[in-house]
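User: Hey, quick favor. My workstation is busy. Could you predict this chain's structure for me?
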Amino acid sequence: MRLLIIQGGFGAGGAEKVVSLIANQRSLKGDDVVVAGMHMPDEGSHYPYSDSVKFRVLRNEKANGLRGAWLRMKFLRSLVRELKPDLIVSFLTKINTLTLMATIGQNVPVVISERNNPRAQKAHPVWYHAQNIAAIRAKAFVLLTQDARKDLPRWINKQAVVVPNPCAPVASAALRPIGDCREIVAVGRLEYQKGFDMLISAFSEIHQARPNTRLTIFGEGPDRANLQAQINTLNLTGAVSMPGIIGEPSAWQRVADLVLVTSRYEGFCNVLAEATVSGIPVVSFDCDYGPQSLIRNGENGILVPAEDVHALSNAALNLIDDLALRKKMRGAVATNRAMLEPTQVLAKWDQVIERAANTSVRSKFK
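Assistant: No problem, here it is.
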């Protein structure tokens, strides 16, 4: 099969990780795989690819607005004409919409995948509505949670299939022993969605009550300067660090006694998935979507009301003091492991891909 996978770029995001896994998996199965993106980091793809996987990158990736959308759609349309793929799989709201528009009249089946919460993200709402209209042409619409599926318009719900993100555990021997709870960790792009401004406010309360605690925020993004200013204002410069993007994706798990998730919204929340399959205690806002699918409250983590900073800090302090509960969470790894086991998840992707490529009419996925 000639398979074209289209994404926004080749950076350190969750969608990019899944694209690399699918591309490598399909290449091993003998597919001729091309992965296209709108931009490529100077240092190359953050995630590894098989040597047999080919890349295509748009040169004018910095164009914005209508001109940027037009250039991207033109790039995709010419790419489809050149490669003549048997199937296209695209990721993320804007890319999904542009891909479906670019393939009008080209007789190639398309699978689209939404990785975030398009109702909540800060992109112009026209993209959310455009995707829902264009999605009627898709062979399948892959979502990460059942809650996201429930929010789809009824006219495209029959194309929807839920496939969570794959997640492998870190060996327990590599984790910090369950004992004193000092090292608090958060991970994600430094932007509005991840709510790190609320995290820093919550940590200020935690640190005041437990002065030996430290917070490390792994990630990079446009809000770095504002977050650093907040840290300075709250006199937390010696207790909070932001070391940037870590080279090995699982490295943060080896230094965490406790993980805090303060997202305003999510599509899935890879950080929660990675923490829970390895047994790292977590406290998370109960935002849409993801946390409710991954956390069994009081068993493998703690959920608190969305954007409630005081509830988050109080829950974290209670967990810091409750050694028995943290030990219980270390042992609760089975809750999510089976659902997120990489070979099982990639097998579901194989099913979606092969069914979409081999059917000439839309059919309902289960």
